[in-house]
Amino acid sequence: MSTQVKITHTFNAPRELVFKAFTESEHLQNWWGPKGWTFNVYKSDFRAGGVFHYSQKTADGDEMWVKFVYREIIVPEKIVYTSFFSDEEGNIVRAPFNADWPLETLNSMTFIEDEGKTTVTAIVTPLSATEGELKTFEESQDMVHEGFSGTFNQLENYLSEESEANLW
After folding, report:
1. Is residue 70 part of a domain?
2. Each residue's pLDDT tens digit, 70-84
């Protein structure tokens, strides 16, 4: 078991487009989060020290708020941010699915282009977690992988649809 999760996905698109899809709310709202959920951006300030605050809603109306605080941005190579579940005002709250989930995670995403394709590597690490939170995180690695994989697959579809429609 490990106290970090690493997910890698290669997209058939240039790095600038993939990076733009990750950083501009008008694109993010079309693919980020669990499939079939409604995604609403409350605040998007893409800069070091800036905040990305959004809500996700299930088909049956359950709503979950998440907030990112950007730490480092190197366009179009890297994004580092902390992430936590929040209330509507942006205050840290416990994860709705497990009270022992770490309150905050550090997320590092790198974007590497090779021959027109872009490999995104996401590394998720709990921050200041208790022993119980670390254990929960370690036991939930498959869930984290599945979540990112599903989200990345949605981005793959979105990039393909947008390219076909020449919307970039």
Report:
1. yes
2. 999 999 999 999 999
User: To 5 degrees, how large is the angle CA 80–CA 64–CA 87?
Assistant: 80
Amino acid identity at 23 = T
Handedness of CA 106, 112, 117, 121 (dihedral sign): negative
- Per-position b or e across 98-128, b if 16+ CB within 10 A of its CB: eebbbbbbbbbbebebeeeebebebbbbbee
Strand, coil or helix: 62: coil
Supply the range of the domain harboring residue 83: 5-163
Q: Full-prediction pTM beyond 0.90?
A: yes
> How many structural domains comprise the chain?
1
E-state strands within the chain = 5-11, 38-44, 51-57, 63-74, 78-86, 104-114, 117-127
Radius of gyration of the chain (CA): 16
Residue found under tokens 């996401």: 122
pLDDT tens by residue, 92-148: 999 999 999 999 999 999 999 999 999 999 999 999 999 999 999 999 999 999 999
